[in-house]
């Protein structure tokens, strides 16, 4: 057997695999002999069917099957041995095959990954946000904690700073939802209608401008996002509870509800904890945005050609359904950007040895399980953790998810250390405005 490569251009080549009869004859004969031993053919005892009849009935199919297996194995070995970085899979060219010939040649088209360089030192650095925690953020969180753990006091009627519980109803739109909300979430117009009302009162309200934020309709009326933006109907609201929440005192009893006993003993320590948690959450968002911005930068600046015609042809038969030429072209247009980034990311990972090891996966899975157990109030048990991790390591889908998380973190760390960054200190509100300018 012999394999040769004809380089068409830097991105395309043809592999020619020549197979001699001697390469597959013995395996074909062994298979035929096994068929003869087990074949049930009327008029013959099992194991006594003439070999000529077996060969005539099964010979060609077994020959073709064995040659295809040999082709697959030899192509895979050749690609590995020659370290060919291909895109897609080899595509067989149309060949007129004389299956009785002493020597058979099969041609396969292959698409090759392009060679390119990645510039990690742009003149204008990739933006990286350092989000500072403002005192107002800490103040608001302290107030939310005091409110959350505060005491509900029943009030006679609706006034400011009231928490309402009641039922929204509209038969036509199938709305029947009991909700609790603060009157501060209502629009000024809606609040005027509620003011002075008491338990048992029923109001008819229009959903347009019912709340200050239209998205509150999703939570309090139980409608979809799209419905919330276009809903314009009358609903009845029956008041079931009118409460005022008295904020909890900042004392040791409250601190021990929030943290392990004795870990926080003063308001100052509480504020420090809140600042640390907020800083950690902000850092995660800033890291994710760095990954997004770096991806955009690399796609914009790393230029290379792809074997597009080969890939379109490969896409036609790559899935479960054979695509038309037009469908394959559309699919290529949709997937080209993702393929380009896979190649760029793959080069960065390979060039800088960022691949995830099995031990890293296992340790990450252990920490993940341990955190989940702590979150649900379960004391971590090493034997139980090992058992859960073992099941995770046998689940390929779960492994892929964990692998991507570790890899993303490795890339973020690498970019922080090696990429030219334009660091910006911003508040959280400034961060949101820069990252989502069209949503402000």
Automatic annotation (TrEMBL):
<dbReference type="InterPro" id="IPR037041">
    <property type="entry name" value="Trigger_fac_C_sf"/>
</dbReference>
<dbReference type="GO" id="GO:0005737">
    <property type="term" value="C:cytoplasm"/>
</dbReference>
<comment type="similarity">
    <text>Belongs to the FKBP-type PPIase family. Tig subfamily.</text>
</comment>
<dbReference type="GO" id="GO:0015031">
    <property type="term" value="P:protein transport"/>
</dbReference>
<dbReference type="GO" id="GO:0044183">
    <property type="term" value="F:protein folding chaperone"/>
</dbReference>
<dbReference type="Pfam" id="PF05697">
    <property type="entry name" value="Trigger_N"/>
</dbReference>
<dbReference type="GO" id="GO:0051083">
    <property type="term" value="P:'de novo' cotranslational protein folding"/>
</dbReference>
<dbReference type="InterPro" id="IPR036611">
    <property type="entry name" value="Trigger_fac_ribosome-bd_sf"/>
</dbReference>
<dbReference type="Pfam" id="PF05698">
    <property type="entry name" value="Trigger_C"/>
</dbReference>
<dbReference type="InterPro" id="IPR008880">
    <property type="entry name" value="Trigger_fac_C"/>
</dbReference>
<dbReference type="InterPro" id="IPR005215">
    <property type="entry name" value="Trig_fac"/>
</dbReference>
<keyword id="KW-0143">Chaperone</keyword>
<feature type="domain" description="Trigger factor C-terminal">
    <location>
        <begin position="268"/>
        <end position="414"/>
    </location>
</feature>
<dbReference type="GO" id="GO:0043335">
    <property type="term" value="P:protein unfolding"/>
</dbReference>
<feature type="domain" description="Trigger factor ribosome-binding bacterial">
    <location>
        <begin position="1"/>
        <end position="145"/>
    </location>
</feature>
<dbReference type="InterPro" id="IPR008881">
    <property type="entry name" value="Trigger_fac_ribosome-bd_bac"/>
</dbReference>
<dbReference type="GO" id="GO:0003755">
    <property type="term" value="F:peptidyl-prolyl cis-trans isomerase activity"/>
</dbReference>
<dbReference type="GO" id="GO:0043022">
    <property type="term" value="F:ribosome binding"/>
</dbReference>
<keyword id="KW-0697">Rotamase</keyword>
<protein>
    <recommendedName>
        <fullName>Trigger factor</fullName>
        <ecNumber>5.2.1.8</ecNumber>
    </recommendedName>
</protein>
<keyword id="KW-0413">Isomerase</keyword>
<dbReference type="InterPro" id="IPR027304">
    <property type="entry name" value="Trigger_fact/SurA_dom_sf"/>
</dbReference>
């Amino acid at each position: 057997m012999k394999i040769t490569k004809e380089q068409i251009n830097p991105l395309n080549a043809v592999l020619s695999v020549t197979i001699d009869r001697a390469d597959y004859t013995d395996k074909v004969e062994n298979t035929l002999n096994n068929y003869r031993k087990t074949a049930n053919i009327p008029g013959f005892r099992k194991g006594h069917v003439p070999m000529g009849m077996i060969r005539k009935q099964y010979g060609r199919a077994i020959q073709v099957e064995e040659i295809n297996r040999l082709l697959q194995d030899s192509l895979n070995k050749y690609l590995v041995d020659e370290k060919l970085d291909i895109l897609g899979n080899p595509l067989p060219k149309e060949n007129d095959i004389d299956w009785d010939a002493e020597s058979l040649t099969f041609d396969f088209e292959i698409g090759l990954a392009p060679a390119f360089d990645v510039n990690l030192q742009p003149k204008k650095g990739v933006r990286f946000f350092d989000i500072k925690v403002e005192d107002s953020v800490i103040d608001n969180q302290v107030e939310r904690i005091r409110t959350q753990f505060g005491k509900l006091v029943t009030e006679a009627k609706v006034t400011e700073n009231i928490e309402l519980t009641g039922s929204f109803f509209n038969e036509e739109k199938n709305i029947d939802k009991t909700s609790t909300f603060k009157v501060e979430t209502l629009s000024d117009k809606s609040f005027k209608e509620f003011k002075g009302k008491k338990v048992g009162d029923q109001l008819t309200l229009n959903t347009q401008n019912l709340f200050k934020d239209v998205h509150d309709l999703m939570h309090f009326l139980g409608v979809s996002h799209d419905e919330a933006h276009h809903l314009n109907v009358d609903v009845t609201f029956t008041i079931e509870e009118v409460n005022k929440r008295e904020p909890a005192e900042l004392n040791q009893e409250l601190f021990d509800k929030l943290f392990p006993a004795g870990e926080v003993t003063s308001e100052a320590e509480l504020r420090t904890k809140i600042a640390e948690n907020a800083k950690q959450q902000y850092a995660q968002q800033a890291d994710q945005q760095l990954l997004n911005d770096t991806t955009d930068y690399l796609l914009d600046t790393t230029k290379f050609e792809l074997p597009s015609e080969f890939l379109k042809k490969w896409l036609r038969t790559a899935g479960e359904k054979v695509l038309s030429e037009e469908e394959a072209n559309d699919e290529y247009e949709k997937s080209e950007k993702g393929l380009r980034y896979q190649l760029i990311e793959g080069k960065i990972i390979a060039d800088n040895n960022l691949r995830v090891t099995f031990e890293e996966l296992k340790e990450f899975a252990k920490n993940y399980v341990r955190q989940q157990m702590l979150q649900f109030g379960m004391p971590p048990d090493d034997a139980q953790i090992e058992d859960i991790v073992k099941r995770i390591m046998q689940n390929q889908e779960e492994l892929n998810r964990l692998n991507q998380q570790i890899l993303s973190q490795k890339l973020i760390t690498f970019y922080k250390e090696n990429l030219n960054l334009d660091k910006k200190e911003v508040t959280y509100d400034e961060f949101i405005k820069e990252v989502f300018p069209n949503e402000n």
